[in-house]
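Hi V.,

Quick status before I head out on leave. The structure for the redesign project is tokenized and pasted below; the design run finished overnight.
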């Protein structure tokens, strides 16, 4: 078995922040949904059962919101962590023509891979300046509908601009 090599200790802080930003993003989509579900179940079984129950009832009443475009949050889309995420790969967005904000558009993104880092960086964050390049357009990245059944996680996904592809 070949020896295991770690990153040198003298990596610049900028590169370490980029790596942490990508690790945070990968954790969000591989483990955060399951963690949120476990926390919700524990809250239902513990002293926070009433707020958890009320949130569960609200989820039921609010179940159609993701299909209607969710609740994108400009603050979440502008988090500084997304600039480090962008610079890790690097991701860029180039406008070749102005788009009329009064119309709807479908942006195809292929090949995208499992986690679609480029699509996420361009359409779920402001790290590449989507809002400035295409003023008046509201991007929504489509993903599996199952993500919107996970308590708490669905709010995080909708804040970034995710919508189910149903």
């Amino acid at each position: 078995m070949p020896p295991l090599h770690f990153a040198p200790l003298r990596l610049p802080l900028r590169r370490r922040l980029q790596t942490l930003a990508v690790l945070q993003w990968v954790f969000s989509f591989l483990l955060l949904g399951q963690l949120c579900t476990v926390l919700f179940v524990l809250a239902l079984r513990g002293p926070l059962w009433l707020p958890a129950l009320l949130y569960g009832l609200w989820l039921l009443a609010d179940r159609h919101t993701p299909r209607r475009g969710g609740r994108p949050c400009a603050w979440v889309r502008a988090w500084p962590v997304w600039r480090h995420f962008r610079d890790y790969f690097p991701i860029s967005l180039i406008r070749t023509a102005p788009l009329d904000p009064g119309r709807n558009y479908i942006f195809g993104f292929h090949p995208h891979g499992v986690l679609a880092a480029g699509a996420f960086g361009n359409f779920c964050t402001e790290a590449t300046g989507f809002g400035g390049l295409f003023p008046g357009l509201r991007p929504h990245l489509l993903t599996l509908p199952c993500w919107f059944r996970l308590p708490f996680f669905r709010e995080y996904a909708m804040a970034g601009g995710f919508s189910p592809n149903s």
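Above is the designed sequence. The beta strands are 141-143, 162-164.

G. will cover questions while I'm gone.

Best,
W.
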